[in-house]
Write a structure and sequence with these properties.
This protein has about 90 residues and is mainly α. The chain has 2 domains: about 40 residues, no CATH class; about 50 residues. About 50% of the residues lie in helices and about 10% in strands. It is built from 3 helices and 2 strands. The protein has a two-stranded antiparallel sheet. Strand 1 and strand 2 form a beta hairpin. The N and C termini lie far apart (about 40 Å).
Length: about 90
């Protein structure tokens, strides 16, 4: 599979609240989009919200499993033997 390099530090045009054109950093735009996607999950129907929460937690736990197999310290919220889904969702551990 070919490697793809994406530059996210390019300025992009956007329309501000006043209607004026503004330049914003693409990296900032991506961060905003990711944050909106992250915090919107509880606004979805319960069946969708629960499914996506489970998928995220599964991915965290798989990362922790990989780290453990490589004898690396397990990242915060990625230890399936220590962390719980409610702790992951609230960020408490």
């Amino acid at each position: 599979m070919p490697e793809i390099e994406i530059s996210v530090n390019l300025p992009i045009k956007a329309v501000g609240a006043s209607g004026a054109n503004v330049l914003i950093n693409a990296c900032v735009s991506l961060q905003i989009a990711l944050k909106c996607a992250d915090i919107s999950n509880p606004c979805r129907p319960w069946s969708v919200c629960k499914k996506w929460s489970q998928r995220v937690c599964d991915e965290f736990f798989k990362q922790g499993d990989s780290e453990r197999e490589l004898s690396l310290p397990v990242s915060s919220l990625c230890d399936r033997f220590k962390d719980t889904i409610p702790k992951i969702q609230t960020g408490t551990h």
